[in-house]
Amino acid sequence: MTTQTRSLFREQCFIGGHWCSATNNASFHVYNPSTKGIVGSVPYMGSKETAEAIKLAEQAFKTWKAQTAALRARVLRRWYQLIVQHTEELAYIISREQGKPIKEARGEVEYAASFVEWFAEEARRSYGDVIPSHRDDARILTLREPIGVVAAITPWNFPAAMVTRKCAPAFAAGCAVILKPAPETPFTALALADLAHQAGIPSGLFSVITGDNKAIGKTLLSSPIVRKLSFTGSTLVGKELMQQAASSIKKLSLELGGNAPFIIFDDADIDAAIDGIMIAKFRNAGQTCVCANRIYVHDSVYEEVTKKLVDRVAQLKVGDAFEPNIQIGPLINRRAVDKVITHVNDALALGAEVAFGKAPSADSNFFTPYVLTEVSDDMLIAHEETFGPVAALFRFQNEHSVLERANRGQSGLCAYIYTRSLSRAWRVSEALETGIVGVNEGLISTTVAPFGGVKESGLGREGSYQGLEEYQEVKYVLMGGI
């Protein structure tokens, strides 16, 4: 660990502008998924510390919301610059606690910084309206105001980008944020909080708390002061949080599970489709919410796709994040490995075939990528998000049938289609029941576009100008007597 990295590596929580331990000094270890060694320890906090963070956030919010958009933009711009300046240190922390290859970690830092830059600019573009009135002696205005104190809960698979995608628009809108990062990856969030404080985010406006998930969540969601929840994670947990938030009618942004179909039609550019699979399926070892989970291949090109995909997958190098030329790091923990093994074994028991891959060793989080063929709709992998490096190839015969299969189930986050037909691209994009569609493209995430799903994949959108609106309320003002 370099001297600079050590300066961002914090083993305390950040509340009210101060680094602090739990009131009872309890803590828990965070493990490197590659080596299984201890990365460090963070406080095991609960209701008491969360309540204090809420109180301080409310105080800071009252001052921050009164600041000009220009001032908020300058602070966010400075945060962006600090993140960019500390790319190597942040990437190192990400790779140690999350396991992704260092090159991917650098890419995540760049992606995370882009949200801060974007919302620094969007802070100046929060416009209200003057609406033609129904009376000649009155005028109608709408104002956009910050919603207030925000609870943000982020996942472990993108420990930097999911923090900035939530916090940057909240700060730009004028809100305060209490962040609970995933227990597997708290150090990246704490490092970002350090840089935010250096950038000028006021004390109390941004707190980061680790510890008892249930106690922290219950305190945040039962508090009338907390007016919004932004959560990225599993659909099951999202439903539980939604129920808890109902008691105080909080505004919700939920980015939940996916089961993305990836459809290769008979007129597709096969080489481009293979490139798309390699990005959409194997980035971050398959641990992404927009991961291609069900790869539907037209029967006439099935053998060609299988052969070319196996040739590419066989070249992937699996190993520790800091080894040269690594493309696949470890899965986050043994539970994740066991889930992927269950999906593979279930598919094989029901008739799928292994075109490439081998079972992992019993004591490792590393998982050699699989390519499974002759996968059918009755297998677990067709219905559940695998969250691992397994490419499952399904056959299909026509557009109508594949659309019916792709839209099956309650997930609706993302889908991918490959075709040379413009009319088919329009037709299928409109017919797919997802919030995002990639047409002849496997990398769809970008700051400037709205990210989010339909059905049980969530509520709301992150990124783009819509991401700012998620942290605002619209106030209607009727001015009479004119």
From TrEMBL:
Pfam families reported in the protein's UniProt record: Aldedh
Tagged with keyword Oxidoreductase: yes
UniProt superkingdom: Bacteria
InterPro entries membership: Ald_DH/histidinol_DH, Ald_DH_C, Ald_DH_CS_CYS, Ald_DH_CS_GLU, Ald_DH_N, Aldehyde_DH_dom, Aldehyde_DH_Superfamily, Succ_semiAld_DH
Signal peptide: none
Limits of the Aldehyde dehydrogenase domain: 19-477
Entry keyword annotation includes DNA-binding: no
Active site: E255
Keywords: Oxidoreductase
Protein's recorded name: Succinate-semialdehyde dehydrogenase (NADP(+))
Protein family per UniProt: Belongs to the aldehyde dehydrogenase family.
